[in-house]
Design goal:
Blueprint lengths: L2 E5 L6 H9 L16 E10 L14 E2 L2 E10 L14 H7 L5 E7 L24 H25 L6 H9 L6 H10 L11 H15 L2 E6 L6 H8 L5 E3 L2 H12 L3 E2 L8 E2 L5 H17 L4 H12 L2 E7 L17 E4 L4 H8 L1 H5 L1 E6 L4 E3 L9 E7 L2
Parallel strand pairs: 1-4, 1-5, 5-6, 6-7, 10-14
Antiparallel strand pairs: 2-4, 3-4, 8-9, 10-11, 12-13, 12-14
Helix pairs in contact: 1-8, 3-4, 3-6, 4-5, 5-6
Length: 392
């Protein structure tokens, strides 16, 4: 399962974002380090279900009238403070939690209502643009420190016959989620001495930054847009970085209202329908959310997760089935499973995603939408429904 980590300074709204996206109860309070141990839960990314191309909806529990929700892991890491890479505020512990994530959502307080340390201040007092590069810088310097501390081992290996710097760095950086391919591509992007003994701090920092960018891409969730000064959000959106305006509190309120029958709302909807049974106070609150959603195209929480997976990671959704004509599994469930795969994946990759035995016994595949057999090198497209024929 893909893993998305929420990172940022204290009080930016990470735990509220996490609660809204998972509907799991966590501690939320207006003081630093409310979260100490990382919270892990299941959330979803949203896409169109292939059942929209059929006469009837599939009825899958993760499909809401053609809105398909695909599970991902969501990780809520405790707030980072300046100097986290040096261990300040338990920073090393919190940064360690990010190593297993595939992509990072940097939750910032777009209202400017918290200072650099995450302490409450007046709305607009702090410049949220200062928080944009904060997480990247702390992660880059933290990784550079790890590289520096392990560099002596690389130097020793370099004295051996047959030394390959790609292999040595891949071995060092495996724990950070870097593959040998990531290392090879990174080394093509930076300038460095052939002899590791001649590497200096600048070379190791360049390596760390490029590896982090390649293995831990970041999307910014500009949170608290419902109370943020308009100019703050506009300045954030002008940046040459992926920035998604969000209101985590608004999303949480909407999900609870939907659960209570007070509103008709699915995560990721750009608008809501207020129910008939609301009182005056509830209607006023929901109408306020309705106005915020109209201005920004929704609450942004689902949009941030979707952007992280489908844009930054460039993944697609594929649906394996056993019956190509009915799009069902062996017990008649329509479109029972959905898998997130990197763009460029093939039916063989999908087979292995289902189960290693299915992949080992792979024979061929059928595109259930066209009822045609596809070759092993066929590149899957978003929403493909694939029948896999295997000996296992």
């Amino acid at each position: 399962m893909l893993s998305i980590a929420l990172a940022g300074k204290p009080n930016a709204g990470k735990s509220t974002f996490y609660t809204a996206a998972t509907m799991a109860e966590v501690d939320v309070a207006n003081y630093p380090f409310t979260t100490i141990d990382a919270n892990r839960g299941v959330s979803h990314v949203r896409t169109e279900c292939p059942c929209l191309e059929r006469e009837e909806r599939c009825g899958n529990e993760n499909c809401r009238n053609g809105k398909r929700y695909v599970p991902i892991e969501l990780l809520d890491v405790a707030g980072l403070v300046p100097g986290a890479h040096e261990g300040k505020g338990l920073g090393n512990q919190f940064l360690d939690e990010l190593t297993n994530a595939d992509v990072i959502v940097n939750v910032i307080d777009a209202s400017g209502g918290t200072n650099a340390k995450g302490e409450p201040v007046e709305i607009g007092e702090h410049d949220p643009l200062e928080d944009i590069d904060f997480v990247e810088e702390e992660m880059d310097l933290w990784l550079a420190g790890i590289v520096d501390r392990n560099w002596e081992s690389v130097e020793r290996q370099s004295r051996s016959p047959g030394f390959d710097i790609d292999d040595a760095l891949a071995e060092m950086l495996t724990g950070f989620g870097a593959s040998s391919t990531d290392v090879a591509r990174t080394l093509r992007e930076i300038d460095y001495p052939e002899d590791p003994i001649q590497w200096e701090d600048d070379h190791r920092e360049a390596l760390a930054r490029e590896i982090r960018q390649r293995t831990k891409p970041i999307v910014v969730a500009a949170n608290k847009i419902d109370v943020a000064p308009q100019e703050n959000v506009e300045r954030l959106l002008e940046l040459e970085k992926p920035v998604i305006p969000t209101t985590a509190e608004g999303e949480l309120a909407l999900r609870r209202a939907a659960e209570g029958g007070l509103a008709d709302y699915d995560p990721g909807d750009e608008r809501l329908e207020i129910g008939d049974g609301v009182n005056d106070a509830q209607r006023e609150a929901l109408e306020g959310l309705e106005a915020t959603m109209a201005e920004w195209g929704g609450t942004g929480v689902q949009a941030a997760l979707d952007y992280a997976v489908y844009e930054l990671l460039d993944h697609l959704t594929a649906y394996p089935v056993q019956d190509a004509s009915k799009w069902t599994d062996g017990t008649g469930n329509v479109l029972p499973d959905a898998f997130l795969l990197p763009r460029g994946s093939t039916p063989v990759d999908l087979a292995y995603a289902v189960h290693s035995d299915i992949g080992d016994g792979y024979l061929h595949a059928v595109n259930a939408k066209t009822s045609r057999e596809v070759g092993d090198g066929y590149e899957l497209e978003e929403g493909d429904v694939i029948k896999i024929v295997s000996t296992n």
